[in-house]
Design brief:
- The protein is mainly alpha-helical.
- Helix 2 crosses helix 9.
Length: about 210
């Protein structure tokens, strides 16, 4: 079983570790994240995604139009992207419209179902699927995914549903990254470092 000292040794600050530890233990049991390699990859990948479990909601506040154009295919034109600088709600509603079960831009679904939780769960359809699997009203209360318990449960559900336990058994970190973040390999070195650090902590004495 994961201990507080191991979680801290894996790079999670003591305050955050104390908050997340019981939820990680419960989710690990429920979704079979139950070996050192599985838990180490889980902690490493998701701590990268959330800056050590401290950012559980997607930040869509951008000041640079060029960065918006780089990040979102729906706004590749920098001049069009300019209107969405410092406008996170408008940006979410534009770039996530008609995707992953969301309605059109006017529906507000893009903002309401922006990335939250450990896997940055995104889109009304994904909130609905996660909520159905977990027995939680996440489509009706999407903000709940940014709370520690639901954030971890959503991450563990996504982890198992996408076959990431098997990849962790083979320590295929790059493949896990693709499973979480599509084709992008952003932050690869940090992900590998976090996973290796977590594995070392988990293999040490509690």
């Amino acid at each position: 079983m994961l201990s507080l000292l191991q979680l801290i040794a894996a790079g999670i600050t003591p305050t955050v570790a104390r908050l997340f530890l019981p939820h990680l233990i419960a989710a690990a049991d429920r979704f079979e994240v139950n070996t050192p390699r599985r838990m180490a990859a889980f902690i490493g990948e998701y701590s990268h995604e959330t800056s050590g479990f401290t950012r559980l909601e997607e930040n869509l506040y951008y000041t640079d139009p060029a960065r918006i154009a780089q990040m979102f295919s729906a706004l590749r034109d920098v001049e069009k992207a300019r209107a969405f600088a410092r406008q996170p709600k408008a940006l979410a509603n534009r770039v996530y419209a008609n995707r992953n079960g969301n309605g059109d831009e006017a529906s507000g679904d893009g903002w309401n179902y922006r990335g939250r939780g450990l896997p940055h769960l995104t889109g009304r359809g994904n909130y609905r699927a996660a909520g159905s699997a977990l027995g939680l009203p996440l489509e009706q209360n999407p903000e709940r995914v940014a709370e520690p318990e639901a954030a971890v449960l959503a991450g563990a559900w996504y982890w198992k549903a996408n076959g990431l336990n098997a990849l962790a058994d083979r320590w295929q970190i790059d493949a896990i990254t693709r499973g979480i973040n599509g084709a992008a390999m952003a932050g690869r070195a940090d992900r590998i470092d976090r996973c290796n650090r977590a594995l070392e902590a988990l293999l040490s004495a509690a």
